[in-house]
Amino acid sequence: MTTKNIMIVGVGGQGSVLASKLLGHLLTARGYDVKVSEVHGMSQRGGSVVTYVRYGGKVYSPVIDKGQADFIVSFELLEAARCLSYLAPGGQIVTSTQQIDPMPVLTGVMDYPENLLDEIRKSGAKVDALDCLKLAETAGSPKAVNLVLLGRLSHYFTDIPQEAWQEAITACVPAKFADLNRKAFELGRNA
C-alpha cells in the first residue's frame, strides 16, 4: 500500500491540531500505519501552523516534502497559496475561503494578495473552496471550521464509511461539543 500525505495548514488557534488528531485516530482505527507531525511556527501569535498526516501500510517519517502532498487542507487562502509547492501532481486542495491578515498586512507593510483563489486555480491545482466560516457559524460556532473542513475532506475518502468519521469525532471531541462538531462535519461534507 502506498503512503498518502495530507498537509493541514492554517493560522494559530483555528483548530488544525484537533483536525490532525482526529484524522490520525480515524486512519489508525482503519488499520493504517499513521504518523502525525506538528510544525507550529509562530502559532501563538497568529502565525502559520502546519501539520503533516501520513498514512499507509508502513510509514517511516512524519514529514512531507515539496511535491508530495496528496491533499492540502487549508483553513485560510494565503496559507493554501504558501503551501502550493507541496501539492503532488494530481493532488487536491480543500480550503476555506476565509482570509486572515498576517502580521505584515496588519502593520501596513504589505497588502493581502488580491484574487488569491483565482491565482491558486491558475497554477493548475484542483481546488475545492468553500466558506467554511459561514458553515461553522451555521453549525453553532466559528471555532468549528476544522470540522467543516474535515467534512469536506471526507467527501474524497470514499473508502471510509461515514460511521468511521463519526466514531473519530466522538473519540476526539469533548462530549459537550460533539453535537455541534457533528453538525459542522455534515455541513462541510454536504456543501
Could you give a quick summary of the protein structure above?
With 191 residues, this protein is of the alpha/beta class.
Report on this model:
The chain has 191 residues and is α/β, with parallel strands linked by helices. It is 38% helix and 24% strand. The chain has helices at residues 16-29, 77-82, 103-106, 116-122, 132-139, 145-154, 162-172, 178-189; strands spanning 4-11, 33-39, 48-56, 69-74, 87-96, 126-130. Strand 4 (69-74), helix 2 and strand 5 (87-96) form a beta-alpha-beta unit. The chain is globular and about 45 Å long. It starts with a strand and ends with a helix. The model has no long low-confidence stretch (mean pLDDT 92).
Round the Cα radius of gyration to an integer and report it: 16 Å
Low-pLDDT ranges: none
Main sheet specs: 6 strands, mixed
CATH architecture: 3-Layer(aba) Sandwich
The share of residues in helices is 25-40%
SSE sequence, one letter per element: EHEEEHEHHEHHHH
Q: Which class best fits the helix and strand makeup? A: alpha/beta
Strand arrangement across the biggest beta sheet: 2-3-1-4-5-6
Number of strands: 6
Count of DSSP helices? 8
The fraction of residues assigned to DSSP E strands is 15-25%
Coarse morphology: globular
Termini separation: 31 Å
Mean pLDDT: 92
Topology-level CATH name = Pyruvate-ferredoxin Oxidoreductase, domain 3
Looking at how many chains there are and whether they match, the oligomeric state comes to single chain
Name the CATH class: Alpha Beta
CATH superfamily: Pyruvate-ferredoxin oxidoreductase, PFOR, domain III
